[in-house]
Structures are given as structure tokens and as C-alpha cells.
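Record passed on underneath.
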Amino acid sequence: MSRKFTYPEARQDEVVENYHGTPVADPYRWMEDPENTELAGWVEAENQLTFDYLAEIPARAMLHRRLTTLYDFPKTNAPESRNGRYFFAYNDGLQNQPVLQKQDGLEGDPQPILDPNTLSEDGTVALMIQAFNDDGTLLAYSISAAGSDWQEIRIRNVDTLTEYDEILKWCKFPGIAWSKDSSGFYYNRFPEPEGGENDTQIALNNALYWHKLGTPQADDMLIFERPDAPELNFTPEITDDGQYLVLNVWHGAVNRNRIYYREVESDGDFVRLLDEPNAEYTFVGNEGSIFYFQTDLDAPRSQLIAIDTANPAREHWRVIVPEQDDVILSTKFVNRQIVVVMLHQAYYQIKIYALDGTFVGDVPLPGMGSIFSIEGKRDGQELFVDFRSHLYPPTIFRYDFATGEMKPWRQPTLEFSPDDYETKQVWYPSKDGTQVSMFITAKKGLVLNGENPTLLYGYGGFSIPLAPDFASQILSWISSGGIYAVANLRGGSEYGEAWHQAGMLANKQNVFDDFIAAAEWLTANHYTKPKKLAIMGRSNGGLLVAACMLQRPDLFGAVICGVPVTDMLRYHKFTAGRYWTYEYGNAEENAEDFKFLLAYSPIHNIKKGVTYPPTLITTADHDDRVVPMHAKKFAAALQANDAGNHPILLRLDMKSGHGMGKPTSKWIDEWADIQAFLFQALEMGQ
């Protein structure tokens, strides 16, 4: 399907910003205003062009049917137990949102207690946070509309399925901590915005409140705030013994936090146990006055420590599970033991330790994969594990501490034969010689002739690891003859905090070098060739693929740039962007940051007269995390400067956000568009 692309005209203004003596043009500054009527018309025209093009691709209808089939299997998450009841989310296959269910005992009949699909006609209202009281009779939950990060908290009686009258507003990433007597709960929220609506630009002065059950939000009691530090957030937790209220004090996406606490029955000041943001501290549990924390302080691959709150000086801290060769990802008290989830060579393992740090044993897993979540009680004898991999659908296993047996509790069946495919791990050198790992999933017996269509995925930031994970779209891709590759780039946490720091701030170019080296390795080893190689990333990964395609446009046959960050000089001015300066830097405040940010900032490195690969840029109208202006400005600049005749398309989804809570139907539509675009760009099936 060959065509000449005529893009909607995007006005270019004479806007120039001075950064530390360097003038920088910003011709599409006007696109930062979401209320601009001219911009709305331009977006509508862009969407018309995009959807018309995608609809003409012959393979799209087939891909939509295949994706629908592959999405249509039952999905369950790891259950929480309360007083003999099990609570879990369940999707029977193609429901837009999973339904929250309860079950009496391991073999009971599941009963729905909350169906988010009834909250909107199009499935765009999603259930987010769920917090049950101790006996499992009350549920406090939050919902999000149209993919927004803003949420409302509501309360339901689990037995009668009746709702309490109060609705708690102005929450973003809230925590909920029920009191032991179920009279109410602690939660964190922001001040009511002027006009009573959530302002996507303002999210300051988070504070901790006490909500008494059955009373209006206006009566909620302010418990704690830090007006001297308006960017801090406070997530509450009550210890299992009910004695302490613990606050995780955090700052945006920065993995450096603080820990405050006080006795639940106290109305005095909080004890600032850890008040220096010098490391990441995750509260695991307590035994009386002994608090246990997972931390990367002086341990880039993390460790478990114990602090006696009666004698909290650092010289008295005890190391319980020391730093090891593998990365400690999470820890949890179950069966009065310590369950440790670890990353070994970028895939997951589970180990069990006694409370004194003595190694007890391993929990067996089916193979290389990811653990989405684990659930268990401090005094319980069972552990639920949500395991998955590229070829292993999400399966809930139950580990019995008494017998040491690990058995499936919920295991789905799919219209797919995983035995015909395989995932293997390879290592390749980056530009500076650093060895980087990569997972490659494809059909068994793959012929390495350099002709295989390949999708290379990456992220590389914010200490987020990429282990083999399950997605129906991966099955669709590899069953079409494609290769799916995931690179474990610096900037993630696959190999600890040092690996993360090697890909942030002035080291960000390492991430791009790692990704480019992955592409070069795949071509040099005859998996594929540039014309058959597509790259994809979302959010920070959208920044990744945008920067790499600008640095090496010759290396890629297609680019899928999802909800990207592309204006690295101004990202911090919008919604959550100010929290990312720890990761990226701040071009306005720091001249050195400006230099390295300008060197790779996508919208500032597009060159006139270069032929760029076919590119699909996706965003959404309600994305209040990475605002759509990034995708809009990037699309306009690429279209204006590209010298070729490849499609450079913008796809803006309506009533959607950054991806959180997106309905199943919207995911299927989006992935049908993405894979159709790739089919056309990589000449698959032609």
C-alpha cells in the first residue's frame, strides 16, 4: 500500500527560549495548551489520517480477530485472605474490567462483590485500590475514570453489597489503612482544588487524614501534613499487630523515601525514624518495637535490616538478609518467615528465610519469568504467587509451608500452543563494552537468515526491571512469524541500583547505546535486518525509541512510540513531570543538565531532510502523567522535517490515560492498529 502523505498543517511560531545563554526554538509551544481550539482541529485531522490509513491495511481485520481470541481467557490475580475468605479480581475473558470476587475457603464458589463494568457504559471506569478490613466485611476502594491518575475512594459492605454514602475525592496514588476496630481508616489526599475539580497541573500538599466510617469527607480529621515540603506524599500502613501507624513519605518517582511512625492510639507527633532521603526504605513488618526494612542503603542490590525503635541509632541496626549477587526486589512476612523475591539474571526467584536471616529454602517456579504479585499473611501457612512469562499465561500458584508443595490454584487455558515456541536469554556488548542481557522469544527452529520481522522492546529507566512477562499481543506477534526481543537496559533495576544509576541523568546516553547495540546484535547475528526490525517503548520507553530512531534512523524499519516523553527541556512543567528531575535533570535550573538533556531531547534533535522510519506515535486525551503535548509536538516536528514518504502518524485515543485501567476492548483496538502498522511497514505477509 503505497501513498503520498499530506499531513495536517501545524503552525510554527517564533518562540525562542534562552537556556543559560543558548537560544532554543520552540515553534510548537502553542500545542502545550490542551484547550486550544486550533489544536483540537489539528488533532482531529491527525486522527482521521491515522485511522483511515490503518483501516486500509488488509491484515488489520485478521489481527483484530486473532487478538480478540488470544485475550479471551480467564484471568485471576493472587487472592488476599481475610478471616477464611479469599478476595481476588477475575476477568472471564473479554470483560473490559475485572470483577472483584470473594470466595469462602479454597474450594468455595466465587461470588461477585464489585463489578466496575457497571460503572460506565464503555468500561472506562476502573477499580484501582482495594483495602479490606481485618475480618473481610468492609471494602474501601478507589476508582479512576478515563485513565486518569486521579481517583475517588468509596466504601462497600461486602456482605450486603450496599454502599456507604460518603465519597472521598482529590486522591492520586492513595493508600488506605483500616483501623483494627473497623471504625474508619487513614488515607492520603490532596487539597480540594479551586472550583472543586481535579486540576491536572496542581498536585501539591498531600496530607494524611482520618476518615470515620459513615461520615462526610468534610468531617475528616487532618492527621499529618508537611506544608514546608509540599511535594512530599504520605502513604499510611497499620502494622499487623495494630500497634503502629507507619507512613511511607515519598517524592514522586524518586526511589528515595523517608519513614515516620507513631503508636495508633497516640495523637502526638510522628517519630521521624528515617528522615534523610538517602536510600529506598520499604517497611516489611515488625516484631514489637523491632521494625524490618528492605533497603538499598550501602547495598545497591538491596538487603533486609532490622531497626529497634527503642534504640534506633544507625550503629545498632542489624542486617538480617545481606546483599547478594542477585537483586532483592521485594520481601514479605508470611508464616512468620521472610519471603524474598529476587531477580536472578533478570528473571524472578523466590527464597525463604527465618526471621534471624537463616536461609530455609527455595519456592519452586516453572521457569524464567516474572512474579506479578505474592500474597500471604504473617501468621498464615500459605503463599499465593502470580507467575507468568512470555509463553506462560498468568497462573496463580499456592505454596503450602507445611508440606512444601507448590500447586496451581488458578491456571488458564488459551487458544495457543506454547510448546511450539521458546524464550532464550542472550548477552551482548554495548558501545562501552558493558554486557547487557536480552530475552528473545520466537518459534522453535527459527532460521537465522536475516529476514525475520522483529520487535525490540525496551524501557531503561526509573529502576524498573523488564523480566519475561505475559501479554496476548506477544503471542499474536510471534504466531505471525515475528521475533519478540526485550533488552535489559541500564536505567532499570535488573542488576541493582548501580545498574539504574548508570542510565540516569548525565548517563542517559548509556541507555540509548544499550538499545542500539541490541538492534545491531540482532542484525549481526542474522535474526533480522534493519528493514525488518521494529522498536517499541512506552512512556520513558517512548523517549527511548524516539531518541534512538533520531540517532540511528538507518537501523530501524518501524517505530512504535507510546505515550512518550519528548520535550526534555520542559517536561518538568507538566503534571507529574516535576517528580522526574531526579531521573532526568532540570534544564532550567542547571546548565550542565541542560547540555546533556539538549543532546538527546527528541523534539530538539529532529533534523531537516532526513528520511525517518515509519513511525506511529500513540497518546491519549486523559493522560495526566505524560501529557499528550509531548506526542503532539513530536509528531508535528517529525512530519514537518522528514524527507521521506514513510508514514509518520499520531494516534490519540479518547477517554483513555497513560494505560492504567484501560478497558480490554481499547487494548485490543490499539494493538490491532500497532500490529497492522508493523505488518505494513515490515512487509509481513507480502
Q: What stands out?
A: The mean pLDDT is 96. Residues 37-55 form the longest helix (19 residues).
